[in-house]
Amino acid sequence: MRLRARRKQAQDARRRDVVGRKADERRTQAMHEQGAHFIKNYELARMASYSNYPESLLAAMQVKSLVGPRGPIADQDISVSAFQLEPGTVYGGHAHPHPEVYIFLAGTAECEWGDETFTAEPGTVTHCPPNMSHALRVTSSEPLQAIIVCWAPDGDRSVWNGISTLLETPRGGACPHMR
């Protein structure tokens, strides 16, 4: 009798373990649900290294590619990323070969796009033509969040081979007013 009881307990424990694991898998799947044409509840990730960006900037920056050549939703002509910078972060002057649109969702930042300076806040939309220097400094006490949309103009996919590079000014820093 005792042997049967122990076997039954062991079976019940295994069944609970399997049921628990399946429930965990369903929760994880629901949290990160994704198909060929959609993503739900994506998570931002810190960039390990990129171009000539300093560690201090990378530590304050989180990005998730959503659509694009390297995104979970594949497309060779457009890139859509979720982007976040921590409060106080200076993202110095940089440029890249592809055009870019920022759609600001949360937080505020002082921005310099080419010769223009402005404050970005939720609802601000910006356009940056190819190779134009742009910079920002997060001024809010909350993280700056934006969706960034880039594309291959006229189908020129070679723009994806170029990387963003922080630019130096004659005084040795990126965008002097951003310091």
Number of domains: 2
The biggest beta sheet is recorded as: 7 strands, mixed
The global form is elongated
Which CATH class of the largest domain is shown? Answer: Mainly Beta
- Reported by name, the CATH topology of the largest domain is Jelly Rolls
What fraction of the residues are assigned to beta strands by DSSP? 25-35%
End-to-end Cα distance, whole Å, is 78 Å
Q: How large is the count of helical segments?
A: 2
Gyration radius from CA atoms, angstroms: 23 Å
CATH superfamily of the largest domain: Jelly Rolls
pLDDT averaged residue by residue: 83
Broad structural category = alpha+beta
- Looking at the overall shape, the CATH architecture of the largest domain is Sandwich
**What's the helical proportion of residues?**
10-25%
Give the low-pLDDT segments. Answer: 26-31, 169-179
